[in-house]
Design brief:
The complex is a heterodimer of chains A (327) and B (333).
Chain A (H helix, E strand, L loop, with lengths): L4 E12 L2 E13 L4 E5 L6 H8 L7 E10 L2 E2 L5 H10 L1 E4 L13 H12 L4 H14 L5 H4 L9 H13 L5 E5 L7 H17 L3 E5 L3 H7 L2 E6 L2 E7 H6 L4 H9 L47 E3 L2 E3 L6 H8 L1
Chain B lengths: L5 E13 L4 H7 L5 E13 L3 E5 L6 H8 L7 E6 L2 E2 L6 H9 L1 E4 L13 H11 L5 H14 L16 H13 L5 E5 L7 H18 L2 E6 L2 H7 L2 E6 L2 E7 H6 L4 H9 L38 H5 L11 H5 L8
Parallel strand pairs in B: 3-8, 3-9, 6-7, 7-8
Antiparallel strand pairs in B: 1-2, 1-4, 4-5, 9-10
Helix pairs in contact in B: 4-5, 4-6, 5-6, 6-7
């Protein structure tokens, strides 16, 4: 399997007067062509930052301080801004959380779509407009030939997010980065948007990096999932396995803390404490101070190593320890 | 449910917001007034010791209702009786004060609901002092107890809100809410600004406090799983009206209103049992131009002719033309 996107040892720092703060530390993962990779974690875990680093849109003082990012084999983390601009949109489509801020309020929907199509293809203006109408139809906007001349404020939240999806996909990118695409929407509309995103990316063969804090959205959409904590990936693997039988104690705590519709429980499982600030990430395993299964090994930082078909960054799954436990 | 001992009774509650343009523009453009019915005739009661969950999507009037129940917003019509006292109508200041002490509110955003210039000790002591429940020294001692109760340290009373994380701030807001020994707390989206692991801590804390202090909650949220965990009974709101109310277990097992059914089906399935999520067509309409008849009929998969013309009455805990004929037709087999 040759990866579409390959991230190795990515490190992102924020330069401050007191020295650099490490926001992402040793992030490594691959996305295969057509695959949906979910990124989950709590606020501040570094999910969105990973997405921004890939498309090189980190706001200063944030900067990539190490590692490499490859798209179809060639590095994209050190490209000049003009080259990177071509990749954004053409090769990598982007969907942000708030559809109102990702659309230009002064331009008609159709002009925004046509502009993107014209920038990345060799179509004429008339063809681009026809293509734009087709895209609006594909994302499920009723009577697209009329709505194409509307302004963003004339669309509801769910309809706007459909337009944003059309914008992200209209240049037929190989990868779509969707950062909390449904968080601002009501639950009934959320289901519609997820269905549109899933169907369209499948039909056009685009891979998706789906960033969300909503485990339910991941469970029904992603093929694989990466769980992040304090700027690191603690576990990555096939979505069913990670959701049903998480290995890393943080992933276990996270899954157990989510209330479900299925059964009424007396108490929710809870993880004591809160995620550390960037300035106070403990040495060794970042989760150790909150971990119910912490032991002397945890003062050293665990690497993300394979455990069966997935990977976990936890000393509990180091080969000799597993062997001991089996005896 | 009226047979048991109700702590809160809501009767015919209505709130209309005037969202018309200024009168001169209206005159020039010959436009009528535009009225937004945020809450359109609600009747329910809350029994002592229970948690009533209210769910609904944005614009369904949940938060407007919460603000009217605690008296932060005047009703356009109808009344809210707390232990038999109508705060808006009673002329007796002593009675009003007594009711206010027994009723508190927890807000969604723990960053906006705490005064950034006050120390935690002063924030939590304010209701104690305002209601004259204790002197300064006794109040300071009580603040220490309350901080312990919500899982913080008494020494935290010297700190300012910015020194705390979102979850800790929500604990502080809870400590302030229980400082005046209330019986009844209105919680408006208490955990929707928090991460799931922190949400679990806060929900567990709220249930512990309910058991220890015998609290009654009105819990407003858009998260059905949270309601399932917390509530004794659940009410479902759509465009300012209750469409269904019932015991939590029964409502989740056998929703009677198509909208309830739709909400339940729209929740993503975490156990990955293969249940497909059925996306529903359409979005909640703008509450300014409500459809005639049943407000849900444009999105309802089962709508019949009468739904387009007649607004269904809220009878037998559900407002649906179909449910009245054959209760349970929507049940999951």
């Amino acid at each position: 399997m040759s990866a579409l996107l390959s991230v190795r040892d990515l490190r992102v720092e924020f330069v401050t007067r007191k020295g650099p703060l490490v926001a992402l530390d040793g992030i490594s993962f691959d996305i295969a062509p057509g695959e949906v990779l979910g990124m989950v974690g709590e606020s501040g875990a570094g999910k969105s930052l990973t997405g921004l680093a890939i498309i090189n849109l980190l706001d200063p003082p944030g900067r990539i301080a190490g590692g490499e990012i490859r798209l179809e084999g060639s590095r994209i983390d050190n490209l000049p801004p003009a080259r990177m601009r071509e990749i954004r949109g053409r090769r990598i489509g982007i969907i942000f959380q708030d559809p109102l801020t990702s659309l230009n309020p002064l331009l008609r929907i159709g002009d925004q779509l046509a502009e993107t199509i014209l920038a990345h293809t060799s179509l004429t203006r008339r063809q681009a407009r026809e293509r734009a109408i087709a895209w609006l139809g594909e994302v499920g906007i009723p009577s697209p030939e009329k709505r194409i001349d509307g302004y963003p404020h004339e669309f509801s939240g769910g309809m706007r997010q459909r337009v944003v999806i059309a914008l992200a996909l209209c240049a037929e990118p190989a990868l779509v980065i969707a950062d909390e695409p449904t968080t601002a929407l009501d639950v009934s509309v959320q289901a519609q948007i997820i269905a549109v995103l899933k169907n369209l990316t499948r039909r056009h063969g685009a891979a998706v990096m789906l960033i969300t804090h909503d485990m339910g959205v991941i469970a029904e959409t992603a093929d694989r999932v990466a769980v992040m904590y304090a700027g690191r990936i603690v576990e990555i693997g096939e979505v069913g396995e990670v959701v049903r039988h998480p290995l890393h104690p943080y992933a276990q705590g996270l899954m157990a803390a989510i209330p479900t519709l299925e059964a009424r429980v007396r108490r929710l499982a809870q993880i004591p404490g809160a995620m550390p600030r960037l300035s106070a990430i403990p040495r060794g395993c970042a989760f150790a101070p909150r971990c119910p299964r912490v032991f002397d090994r945890c003062v050293e930082r665990p690497l993300l190593l394979p455990v069966g078909d997935r990977s976990a960054a936890c000393w509990l799954y180091e080969a000799p320890v597993v062997a001991e436990a089996r005896q | 449910m009226s047979a048991a001992d109700p702590i809160v009774v809501v009767r015919g509650l209505r709130r209309v917001f005037d969202v018309s343009p200024p009168w001169l523009s209206r005159l020039i453009d010959r436009e009528p007034r535009r009225l937004l019915k945020a809450v359109d005739g609600l009747d329910f009661s809350i029994v002592r010791g229970e948690t009533l969950g209210l769910v609904g999507e944005s614009g369904s009037g949940k938060s407007t209702l919460a603000r009217m129940v605690v008296g932060l917003l005047a009703a356009s019509a109808g009344q809210v009786l707390i232990e038999g006292v109508d705060l808006a109508a009673t002329g007796d200041p002593a009675a009003r004060r007594a009711v206010r002490r027994r009723m508190q509110m927890i807000f969604q955003d723990p960053f906006a609901s705490l005064n950034p210039r006050w120390r935690i000790g002063a924030i939590i002591a304010e209701p104690i002092l305002a209601f004259g429940l204790a002197g300064r020294q006794a109040a300071a001692r009580r603040v220490g107890e309350l901080l312990n109760l919500v899982g913080l340290h008494p020494a935290d009373s010297r700190k300012f809100p910015h020194e705390f994380s979102g979850g800790q701030r929500q604990r502080i807001a809870i400590a302030r809410a229980i400082a005046s020994n209330p019986d009844f707390i209105v919680c408006d989206e208490p955990t929707s600004a928090l991460d799931v692991s922190i949400q679990a801590q806060i929900l567990n804390l709220m249930r512990d406090l309910q058991d220890r202090l015998g609290l009654t909650y009105l819990l407003i949220t858009h998260n059905l799983a949270v309601v399932r965990f917390m509530a004794t009974r659940v009410g479902v709101m759509y465009l300012g009206r209750l469409v269904e109310i019932g015991e939590t277990e029964a409502l989740f097992a056998k929703p009677r209103h198509p909208y309830t059914r739709m909400l339940l089906d729209a929740v993503p399935d975490l156990s990955m049992s293969g249940r497909a999520r059925t996306p529903v067509g359409g979005e909640p309409p703008n509450p300014i131009d409500q459809p005639p008849g049943c407000p849900f009929h444009p999105r309802c998969p089962r709508a019949i002719e009468v739904c387009r013309t007649e607004t269904p009455a809220f009878v037998d805990d559900v407002a649906c033309h179909l449910a009245h004929g054959d209760p349970g037709w929507l049940g999951r087999e």
